[in-house]
Fold each of these.
Amino acid sequence: MRILSGIQPSGKLHIGNYFGAMRQNLALQTEHEGFYFIADYHALTSNPDPRDLKQRSLEVAMDYLALGLDPQKTVFWRQSDVPVVTELQWILSCITPMGLLQRCTSYKDKVSQGISSNHGLFAYPVLQAADILIFDSQLVPVGADQKQHIEVTRDIAIKFNNAYGEIFVIPEDHIIESVAVVPGIDGRKMSKSYDNTIEIFEPENSVKKKVMRVVTDSTPVDDPKNPDTCNVFALLRLVAPDSELKEWEEKYRKGGIGYGTVKKRIVELLIEYFRPYRARRQELEKNRDQVEKILLDGAERANAVAQKTMNRVRKAVGLRERL
Ligand code: ADP
Ligand code: TRP
């Protein structure tokens, strides 16, 4: 199956992103034909500083490569290096009913969070549909928040096929099985917008400081504690092997251990978990040219597929073919 995933270059990736989505996404590349890209055109909808956008796109690319994205197997590129996708977006725009976009909750959510409203933000789902359809994607792994955009894509593709013939593959969504929400150091959902994250690749001493600051209740050391409602235990669950987790659970319920002891163990496990990835990340950091080359090679492969689809589309709607 061809599987496509777009990644927003929106800042340093944190362990909530990793355990909530990235790990599952990366696992899928072993059994599917992966097409993964950095969605920098989409990021423009929130008008980032031009230097930040370039830098973040590269950082996210390095994060994914360090964490196991295999560019031999998976086509990996920067969205803006395949600009023909914006041509498809225009063509799709011309058959997309306004009502379909007006119903999209992500636009309303973003505006209510204070992102200034612009046409790109409103048309965001049409560009996403173009991303998906131009590569004949069959499966799109997304978090639950993106499900509506895949439905919009399907609606647009079906409408287009009804009007012009069987041009597009109709994609399916694949809702990523998320772990329970990963809490941030203040106990709310870990999120860059709350400034409560533990970044995957921040220095080890800073990971330690942050884990030690995770908020807990004030149950005394000797008293029993509830693992099901504890932020610290939620973090332990992400990294501890099952057998060890069981032991900690018993200790929690019995009482006699303090949160500090558990936090120290989390620090060890987290650092151990990411150690090989961190080493690879440092290597990539030293070889930015190589990362750039990987993205450009990916863009070449992606362009070849996209051009073919565009020729079908151009012919279907009555524009001149380009090949
Ligand atoms: P943020 O909240 O930091 O802006 P994003 O919304 O960019 O993160 O999240 C990207 C993906 O990472 C989402 O699809 C979501 O499934 C996953 N994710 C983000 N934060 C968490 C979290 N705290 N727990 C579990 N999954 C998360
Ligand atoms: N909108 C997605 C997000 O915010 C990113 C994205 C852009 C995407 N184009 C896509 C995801 C195509 C899947 C398929 O996470």
Amino acid sequence: MTNWKYETDGDVAIITWDMADRSMNVMTADVIRELDGHVDAVLADDALKGAVITSAKADMGGGVDLTMLAEIKAQAAKEGGNVGEALFGFVWALHSLYRKIEVGGADKKTKKGGKVFAAATPGTALGGVFELLLGCHRRFAADNPKAKLGLPETLVGLFPGAGGTTRLVRMLGVMGAADYLLKGKLVNPKKAKAGLLIDEVVPQEDLVSSAVAWVRGSSEKDAVKPWDDRGYKIPGGAPYTPKGFQTYLGAVAMTHGQTAGVYPQTNAMLSAVYEGSLVDMDNALRIEARWFTSVLMDPRSSAMIRSLFVNKQAIEKGARRPDVPDQKVKSVGIIGAGMMGAGIAFVSARAGIDVVLVDRDQESADRGRASVEAILDKGVKRKKVTEDQKNEILARVTATPDYDKMSGCDLIVEAVFEDPKIKATVTQATEAVIPEDAIFATNTSTLPITGLAKASKRPEQFIGIHFFSPVEKMMLVEIIKGEKTGDVAVAKALDFVRQIKKTPIVVNDARFFYANRCIIPYLNEAMTMVNEGVKPALIENAAKHIGMPVAPLQLTDETSLELGHRIMSATKVQMGDAYEGTGADDVIIKMFEGQGRAGRKNGKGFYDYDEKGKRQKLWPDLATHFPVSDDQPDVEEVKNRLILSQVLEAIRAKEEDVLVDIREGDVGAILGWGFAPWSGGPLSWVDLTGPAEVVAMCDALEQNYGERFKAPDLLKDIAAKGDTFYGRFQPKQAAA
Ligand code: NAD
């Protein structure tokens, strides 16, 4: 199969990428082999001055095909070969090709006689594809504001390991490259030009001709990259210069401060950057390739790729969607124009869906619409949205107290107060006006769906669609099936979530569903420790050390102690005698009832906040209300309590069939509450740690802290049989 078209226009070759069987180009072994052949043809042809590498699709390409990396591993393992060698072979083939382009056949000593390569990207170019651009001598991008350019590898457990790390540091210096390498920052062409990633932004119709003209007019000097010239100095200095020393020290400290050293890819990348800047380009690339291979061999990195790339994509593409016809939403009715309703209205209207936003009176509905406008205004200020786009999106939102206006809606999302009686009244009033086949969804965060569905005449069309706050930022949406929820409702919810470009998980009904069920014990465990006299700073730092992006007391402040108080009180009422209090209850009561500390929302929680709402230090009086004990626990024990409080709930959710698919349990945990992303999620964490080891951790904690740490039977069984969660439950077709 051919993936590239090779033509010549006088003295310039045009090599155009267009994979027949894919909507988006991706780097595969075949693509690399073919391009290598074309590059050789350019180098061997005396009539050519150079070449333009471009794409016939709307975008240049999405990166290296990560599923292929898993295949290379599996194949080598099956054949009894050396997995590391096989991976390095693939990585090195990519490096060699990009370096061949960069050297352009120039004489090694004189640097003369090289051909030039220009890259011309019509749209998005990511990861390994962007690294191809970096190998070229000049980069042209079409003026396409939707295009994204950059190196997102670090977000899925890798780092730019096809020359991107080495080249970007040589181009921009360590500090200049830091955001692109460490944070996977993506930019549009204009910003990429301002940031020196791209040389020229030209109108789409002039893209290839501009690149061809540049190749034709290029000089011999254009064929030599600055770092292949003698005397080249890395911007900001190399590590052995006094200035560079400071920069490198700063970069390492900053990275460790942000990652707590738990991400294998950032540590490897820093090593590749440091060691690579001590040697010449060819050796630097070899060093980068070796570090990159070491990351590919690290099980943590594989777990991250599996959850954050392979399985996330499978879920978004509908791995759990029932086989029913397209259920795309045209018009959504949102009832309750408060914080959540307004956010849901915004993401729906942004996706091109008409919105009827209903509240108790015109004023409240208008307030909701004004919140949508405020979100859009922020976008305009940050230049993410134009004034025209803002008006277009806002025009899709009708604010009204009149339920009849929802008569044309095919989906309803109810987001009124968390009160079953109010929700029941709203359900009945809505069903009286909406079409017979419309789906009714509730955004409840705590009330079981099956119970709420009792108010509905059509329980098979009743479902939970649980958003997280703030809706415009949080990527996870939890879809909850009540006992009677039918397939069409599930498909409708999934199609809606896909339209608004979020990631869904589908779970069965139970108290707190999946995400909140796991978050609450994590927050409670931290507060229980505060009650026991454990130093709050120890708790927060231990959480950071297990890789939680937001520590538990900080997270409690964010979600508010008031909400914690409300959930605790409601749970007590609902469970009656069966309610088993936790040490956290005392803390919530003392903090919220006793001290009026609600969290960030009133500027007073476990932390203090300034007038602008910026978090300051831990509240100094905490120790007065919760005296710190002389005997502080070992940090490892604090870490284990914090991580197991989440992991054990995830396992119990699987055991009780609330969680149907473990892929969703892991993806949902990372996107929903930031569960240690380096581990690939709570169930991957068990597999990485070793199920038997986890059972032993549970036994030790159970002895000291009681039943809540008792190892679930499912975990014990997996450990006893030498199994793993993914070994037992990963769907066959999705093995990665
Ligand atoms: P909110 O108080 O900000 O908004 C509720 C809105 O519902 C108000 O504008 C109110 O006027 C309106 N309302 C009340 N009764 C109504 C009626 N009979 N008809 C029409 N409108 C009515 O609350 P919120 O934080 O947006 O939460 C709404 C729902 O979303 C709740 O069920 C909550 O549990 C759930 N939820 C909240 C969060 C969160 O973080 N706040 C997260 C997920 C889900």
